[in-house]
Design a protein that fits this description.
11 helices; alpha/beta; 7-stranded parallel sheet; about 35% helix; two-stranded parallel sheet; single chain
Length: about 300
């Protein structure tokens, strides 16, 4: 990270709506460069995090957030839609955010590449048709459209980030193997895309420096791959027996996992690399898992 960028963001006030896994890593990065960071959570346990002690966490309510919004320059919402498709941020704060748009340089919404639906293993980019079929994916797509309407109709500087499967410390296949994962589901020609939490945060960091309102970005690494390939690679890293490969139809998958296997696509990250992250620190799951195993302090 260049000194120029550190100076540019020093003192920048950033609000993280939904202080979860990704937001906590981004907060650490922002605090280190001198940003003033606040976040929202309904879970008091997040206050136990060492990073959270440097972040002003408030309850998710209009009154507390209204105070924090004063002079905030960038907002990131990572709060997913509810099971019935409601977006709590849009419903409770949409008008309030528009009222503060004059000092907001960027408003990011973390969505999902699930909105693309099934492309039969083909590549998808930000211009691809969205064939969302599951309720979860349809809700995400509807939320994206509602966020973008605030950009086109009300001038709120919204950007959409479609995330592939997130992994990192404490959330990865190495941990699942250690906990007893013994079976890996296979489906011929099936691809999954993923991205290390560090690279997500690096891209989001650059978006705070140089916002591009009205744009959509895929956040994904360079190598879509079958989950069984990742499972076997991780087992080899750990020096344990590879999981037994079984048909996805016989693997006893959860309903959510079955949704994943119903859609097949490879996510293109060219736009992200062109504008925000030319070189990923973890370009494939191989470098990412190897780093996690070595317990590097990556953020």
């Amino acid at each position: 990270m260049s000194l120029k960028h550190r100076i540019k963001l020093k003192g920048c006030k950033v609000g993280l709506l939904g202080y979860g896994y990704t937001a906590s890593y981004l907060a650490k990065l922002l605090v280190e460069v001198g940003c003033e960071v606040w976040g929202t959570s309904r879970d008091v346990s997040v206050l136990k995090s060492p990073v959270a002690r440097c972040v002003d966490i408030v309850n998710f309510n209009r009154h507390d957030i209204s105070t924090k919004l004063l002079n905030t320059q960038y907002i990131l919402s990572s709060i997913p839609t509810s099971k019935v498709g409601e977006d709590a941020v849009l419903d409770e704060l949409g008008e309030l955010l528009v009222l503060h748009k004059d000092h907001l340089r960027g408003v990011g919404y973390l969505s999902s590449t699930s909105v693309y639906g099934d492309h039969q293993g083909g590549w998808v980019d930000e211009s691809s048709e969205c064939y969302a079929k599951t309720e979860r994916a349809k809700n995400r797509l509807s939320a994206e459209q509602a966020w973008m309407s605030l950009c086109s109709n009300d001038g709120l500087p919204v950007m959409i980030f479609r995330l592939s499967g997130i992994y990192g410390p404490g959330r990865n296949v190495l941990d699942r193997l250690r906990l007893g994962k013994r079976v890996s589901a296979i489906k011929d020609g099936q691809y999954f895309s993923r991205i290390h939490v560090y690279d997500i945060c690096a891209a989001l960091y650059q978006s705070i420096i140089s916002p591009m309102p009205g744009e959509i970005f895929n956040l994904s690494d360079n190598l879509p791959a079958a989950s069984s390939d990742v499972d076997c690679f991780a087992a080899d890293l750990l020096g344990v027996n590879r999981p037994r490969l079984v048909s996805y139809q016989e693997a006893g998958l959860s309903s959510m996992a079955k949704e994943f296997y119903a859609s097949n696509r490879r996510v293109c990250n060219d736009k992200m690399r062109k504008h925000y992250l030319p070189e990923l620190r973890f370009p494939t799951y191989k470098e990412g898992l190897d780093s996690i195993l070595l317990r590097e302090d990556i953020v």
